[in-house]
Design brief:
Elements lengths: L38 E10 L5 E3 L4 E6 L2 E2 L6 E2 L3 E6 L5 E12 L9 E10 L3 E9 L11 E5 L3 E3 L20 E4 L7 E10 L6 E13 L4 E2 L2 E6 L4 E13 L1 E7 L2 E6 L2 E9 L3 E7 L2 E4 L6 E5 L7 E7 L5 E13 L2 E8 L2 E2 L2 E2 L4 E8 L7 E8 L5 E10 L2 E8 L7 E10 L4 E10 L2 E3 L5 E4 L1 E2 L4 E9 L10 E9 L6 E4 L7 E7 L3 E2 L5 E8 L9 E11 L3 E10 L13 E10 L2 E8 L8 E4 L13 E13 L5 E3 L3 E2 L3 E3 L8 E6 L3 E2 L5 E6 L10 E8 L18 E5 L3 E6 L3 E3 L3 E10 L6 E9 L7 E7 L4 E9 L5 E8 L8 E10 L3 H38 L12 H11 L1
Parallel strand pairs: 28-34, 37-61, 42-52, 59-65
Antiparallel strand pairs: 1-14, 1-15, 1-20, 2-7, 3-6, 4-5, 6-14, 7-13, 8-11, 8-12, 8-14, 9-10, 9-13, 16-17, 17-25, 18-19, 20-24, 21-22, 21-25, 23-24, 26-27, 26-29, 29-32, 30-31, 30-33, 33-34, 35-38, 36-38, 38-55, 39-53, 39-54, 39-56, 40-41, 41-43, 43-46, 44-45, 44-49, 46-47, 47-48, 49-50, ...
């Protein structure tokens, strides 16, 4: 009859629905409900009491009138609407006791007219109870055959299945009622007789009969013309229904050939039906309140199919007889949504960053078990609605919905709104959350100091919240230094020895990674026992830590069965863990490097109190603890935990790839958002593109935004180069054991930073350092450095190597060849020249002496003879002398 009401009990399920589709709210904040939520039906009936009955039979039984129905005017019981008939055991009821009514059968508002009554009782052996219903006129149209119902002796009965199910609310024909369809007798009278018998040896009987009625009920109810729902100030759903009704107590109908009959029903009931979970507040007829009523005819729940989980209230409208009416119904029900919890990885969370995957746990408890829909949207501080998730079919329970906080999300206070929309139920609930990021005050990052041996960089900055520019206090800030663009390199931490298996070291192959990349971590498992080597079984626990060594429940434990067990191999077992971050948390795949054929294990780190996802850049560590059991002795040992080096997870694509050089201690910002930290590491030398970037996280999980507010990925704030370009001035050749001075020219490629390093000079064939200097090269300058040493005592070619333990892990800066001889090359060139000079002087002296002797002879010849007369020389002689002189 009431097809709009639910036909099965409310059930609750807990499906895990992860929907990303979105449908706009079809009803806004005031959805229209189904027109079946409120409906009304008219019942017309004539009630018969004992004053209109005739009775006969033995005096051995006792018949007692009862009142089974109340007057709707004053609430008083209507006498004679029922009776009890009792016979004691061993009493004879002959002739049978009868209670006889003559019933008028009219045509009613429904498709059927029916006789209805209730009866129940207990019958002993050799007793009986029955009723007869027949047409007393003997009309040939309907025939004289009566309806006869006999209740057998020696049984207890309540109400048997009715002959017909022709009734309806509030005069149903179902369990608890006896009904007979008499529609074909409309216009005629019928006789209803109750008969009770007992023999002298009978076991006695006790029967009750009540509410004998001839009734007709509307088959099709009048549905609501409108039904709306909205939340009231008490967070309840206010239902408003409107119905248009018309009714008439007097009916005229044909009952025989060319005959009509008019009948006025004695009682008229208007019954309003609604879900049982509704609380009825009021009903008005044409503006006149009729509910709350002091004495309603009948009300309660209807749980007889087809009406289940419904309730009704019936109002006696007999006094008005005939009237059209506009009926307004006001009722209340509970908010269909009972819980709404935004989470990250299942952890209830109040603060989010743009790009976060929010998983909302929504619980609904609708009053009516019919399909409805749940919808989820996000609302920003300006009231703009962002699509969420929707479920098109829901009958109550707990559901999970995923919705992504937009990358363009405006920082501030947001709402997540969950709405339940169904024809009978409505619900809405909002939870506030904050979209926030931390960012530096523009220009607040300053860097002072230098790079290299015995120096350090001091970094200062001030952080604020993006939504309000208020100081971001208690933010744990860490500065990382990388060589941007360089291939990743390993960073290692050392563990402590233990009597059982222990982790000797943990190495990160790449300390800086980003979305869609893995962090590769190696750890070495050592068996400390000696010959004979003891076998062990082991389990490993890997915990995630924030960089402050704070664990937060995100961990996983697994059996170390990767092919290396029982770890009796004399070599160290190396394990590799590839770690990825996704919106579902931390995933690990662990395999053995020393037993590569063994299959890996895939693990998901459990949820903790602080989610670690791929949307929040951060720094962290992994702490590894190994617990081993000696298979020979059965003793169990847990090694001291070892922390990995710190890693940096960044959203700055410009920093990938990078080689992690160093990181600062993590420091909290002060109440004004300011912080100061430092990096002291010679590993900062030799970087082609030395970049400093900051990562930070506050107590609510809000992370640090980059220096460029328009680009979330830009997290770096300083870049420079720490490369050295060397050249040298050395002699091409030196003598053995000669004191030699060479000059190394160090040119800095840095723009801002002074570079300090210790440079050692190594001479091949010699042990140790030939000479050492510590030098600071100003930014962009060339610094000459002199080295003095003694040449080897053996002639030959030697290598001069300039290297720094602070630069490229001691790799050579420059290598030159030094030639060592017995004499230096200068002396070797000078000696032949001196020898030639001496020889020339000797020859020259010889010729000078010889020339002097000849001159003397010639002068002697030229002297005059003692005769005193000069002699004329001959012509030939004179020419010879001249030639000789010349």
């Amino acid at each position: 009859m009431l097809s709009g009401l639910p036909f099965s009990p409310i059930d609750h399920s807990t499906p895990m629905s992860l929907s990303s589709s979105y449908n706009p709210l079809p009803y806004g904040s005031d959805p229209n409900g189904t027109l079946y939520a409120f409906n009304a039906t008219l019942a017309q009936f004539d009630l018969y009491n004992l004053t209109s009955a005739t009775m006969s039979g033995s005096s051995n039984g006792t018949l007692t009138p009862t009142s089974a129905m109340s007057n709707t005017v004053d609430g008083s019981a209507i006498p004679g609407t029922g009776f009890k008939y009792a016979v004691l055991a061993n009493k004879t009821v002959v002739p049978p006791q009868t209670v006889n009514w003559t019933l008028t059968i009219p045509r009613g508002v429904g498709a059927t007219t029916y006789v209805r009554f209730d009866w129940n009782g207990t019958l002993g052996p050799r007793t009986s109870a029955r009723y007869l219903l027949y047409n007393g006129t003997g009309s040939s149209i309907v025939g004289p055959t009566p309806f006869v119902k006999v209740i057998k002796a020696n049984q207890t009965f309540t109400v048997e299945t009715p002959l017909n199910s022709t009734g309806g609310i509030p005069l149903p024909c179902g369990t608890g009622h006896e009904c007979v369809d008499v529609s074909r007798f409309a216009g005629y009278n019928m006789t209803l007789i109750f008969m009770f018998n007992s023999t002298s040896t009978g076991g006695g009987l006790n029967v009750r009969v009540s509410n004998v009625e001839v009734a007709s009920t509307e088959t099709n109810p009048t549905n609501s013309a409108s039904h709306s729902m909205e939340l009231n100030s008490s967070n309840e759903v206010a239902h408003k229904g409107r119905l248009s009704l018309s009714y008439n107590a007097t009916v005229t109908f044909p009952y025989d050939t060319n005959k009509n009959r008019t009948h006025t029903w004695k009682q008229m009931l208007t019954t309003f039906v609604m879900p049982a979970a509704y609380v009825l507040d009021s009903i008005t007829f044409n503006g006149t309140s009729i509910v709350p009523a002091l004495y309603p005819f009948d009300q309660g729940n209807c749980n007889t199919p087809p009406c289940t989980n419904g309730k009704f209230v019936s109002i006696n409208m007999t006094a008005t007889r005939t009237r059209p009416a506009v009926v307004l119904v006001n009722a209340r029900s509970a908010n269909a949504i009972t819980n709404l919890i935004p989470t990250v990885l299942g952890v209830p969370t109040t603060h989010y960053v743009p790009g976060d995957l929010m998983t909302v746990r929504m619980t609904s408890s609708p009053a009516v078990n019919v399909s409805a829909s749940q919808q989820l949207v996000l609302v920003d501080p300006n009231g703009m609605v962002f699509p969420g998730s929707a479920s098109s079919s829901n009958k109550g329970g707990t559901y999970l919905y995923n919705v992504t906080v937009p990358l363009s999300a405006k920082p501030g206070s947001w709402l997540v709104n969950g709405t339940f929309i169904g024809g009978y139920d409505f619900g809405t609930m909002s939870k506030s959350f904050t979209v926030e990021q931390v960012q530096p005050i523009p220009g607040s990052f300053t860097t002072n100091g230098g790079v290299g041996s015995g120096t350090g960089l001091s970094i200062r900055g001030t952080l604020v919240y993006k939504s309000s520019s208020q100081p971001a206090g208690n933010v744990n800030a860490t500065i990382f230094a990388v060589d941007s663009g360089a291939s990743p390199g390993p960073v290692t931490s050392q563990g402590l020895k233990s009597s059982g298996l222990y982790i000797n070291n943990v190495t990160l192959a790449n300390g800086v990674f980003t979305v869609s990349q893995s962090l590769t971590m190696f750890f070495a498992v050592v068996n400390p026992t000696t010959q004979p080597v003891q076998p062990f079984n082991a389990t490993v626990t890997i915990e995630h830590e924030w960089y402050t060594s704070q664990t937060h429940g995100v961990s996983t434990t697994f059996n170390l069965t990767l092919g290396d067990q029982p770890f009796t191999n004399p070599t160290t077992a190396i394990c590799r863990a590839d770690i990825t971050l996704g919106q579902e948390g931390i995933q690990l795949q662990v395999r053995s490097v020393t037993s590569p054929s063994s299959p890996p294990v895939t693990l998901t780190m459990s949820n903790g109190i602080s989610p670690v996802t791929s949307t929040r850049q951060h720094s962290g560590k992994f702490r590894i603890t190994i617990t081993s059991t000696n298979k020979a002795s059965g003793s169990t040992t847990t090694s001291p935990p070892i922390e990995s080096p710190a890693y940096a997870f960044t959203l700055d694509s410009d920093l990938i790839p990078s080689r992690l050089l160093a990181s600062s201690p993590t420091v909290p910002t002060a109440s004004d958002g300011a912080f100061s930290t430092s990096i002291s590491s010679t590993s900062l030398l030799g970087a082609k593109n030395l970049v400093l970037f900051a990562l930070g996280r506050d107590a609510d999980g809000v992370t640090l935004l980059g220096t460029n507010a328009q680009k979330i990925q830009k997290t770096s704030f300083f870049s420079d180069s720490s490369l050295i370009i060397p050249s040298a001035d050395i002699p091409s050749d030196v003598a053995t054991r000669q004191t030699v001075t060479v000059s190394l020219n160090l040119k800095s490629n840095s723009t801002y930073l002074p570079l300090t390093l210790t440079v050692n000079l190594y001479l091949s064939g010699s042990s140790g350092v030939a000479s050492s200097q510590t030098v600071t090269v100003p930014a962009g300058s060339t610094k000459p450095v002199s080295f003095t040493f003694q040449a080897p005592g053996t002639a030959g070619a030697y290598l001069l190597t300039f290297a720094s333990p602070d630069y490229f892990s001691g790799a050579p800066l420059l290598t030159k060849t030094l030639q060592v001889s017995v004499l230096s090359s200068n002396l070797q060139i000078l000696i032949p020249a001196l020898i030639g000079l001496v020889v020339a002087l000797v020859i020259l002296g010889y010729y000078a002496m010889k020339r002097g002797s000849r001159v003397a002879e010639e002068e002697e010849e030229e002297k005059p003879k003692s005769t005193g007369k000069p002699q004329k020389p001959q012509s030939g002689q004179q020419n010879t002398k001249s030639l000789t002189r010349s």
